[in-house]
Design goal:
By secondary structure, the chain is α+β, with helices and mostly antiparallel strands. The protein has a 5-stranded antiparallel sheet, sandwiched between helices. It has a two-stranded parallel ribbon with strand order 1-7. The two termini are 26 Å apart.
Length: 195
């Protein structure tokens, strides 16, 4: 089932996610619905707060980037099958060089800005079968994880922009929260203005 994506301004996007256990109600169905929702909106990641649940869960699928000519063959091959579920993740370390990449967000449609992040991270998490995992990831896969991880910490990519950039985007962000934006997927707007 395709779920509505909560738009910028909704309080759930600012909550730090709660850890969950295997007894979380309808978890398998939730993960399936999150994948359907993400693919319907042409996303490469989706965090539970974006569908109104303040829990430590997100999904990623780097395969859309596997077609990019800007990446080397090794990274394209890696991203082709990089599809994961992260439950109760904890970033252990971010390392490497800082690099800027143009990020967008399904909760903040039609806004893309360069965000600076470290290029490699180590993360511990539980997979969809609640098996403990630990991995070190670099490049775009790390970028997608960092972006989604921010969501479960109550952080949006716009928070990582300069104060000047945020001021310049203020009106656009207000319009998103009011539903004054064109999107081709279901959204829930906190300050919807009826048309």
């Amino acid at each position: 089932m395709i779920l509505p994506i909560f738009a910028y301004g909704d309080p759930v996007l600012r909550k730090k996610g709660e850890s969950i256990n295997e007894d979380f109600p309808a978890l398998k169905e939730l993960i399936i619905n999150m994948h359907e929702t993400m693919y319907h909106a042409n996303g490469v990641g989706l965090a539970a707060p974006q569908i109104g649940k303040a829990i430590r869960l997100f999904i990623v699928d780097g395969s859309p980037f596997s077609e990019s000519d800007e990446l080397d063959e090794v990274e394209r091959e890696f991203l082709k099958s990089y599809k994961k579920v992260f439950i109760n993740p904890q970033i252990i370390e971010e390392m490497g060089r800082e690099w800027a990449f143009n990020e967008g967000c399904l909760s903040i449609p039609n806004i893309n800005e360069d965000v600076v992040r470290k290029d490699t991270l180590s993360i511990e998490y539980l997979d969809e079968n609640f098996k403990p995992q630990r991995e070190t990831v670099g490049g775009l896969a790390a970028r997608i994880i960092q972006h989604e991880y921010d969501h479960i910490e109550g952080i949006l990519f716009t928070d990582r922009l300069s104060a000047l950039k945020r001021r310049l985007l203020k009106k656009k962000l207000e319009n998103i929260s009011k539903g004054l934006v064109e999107v081709d997927y279901k959204m829930k707007f906190p300050k919807l203005i009826k048309k």
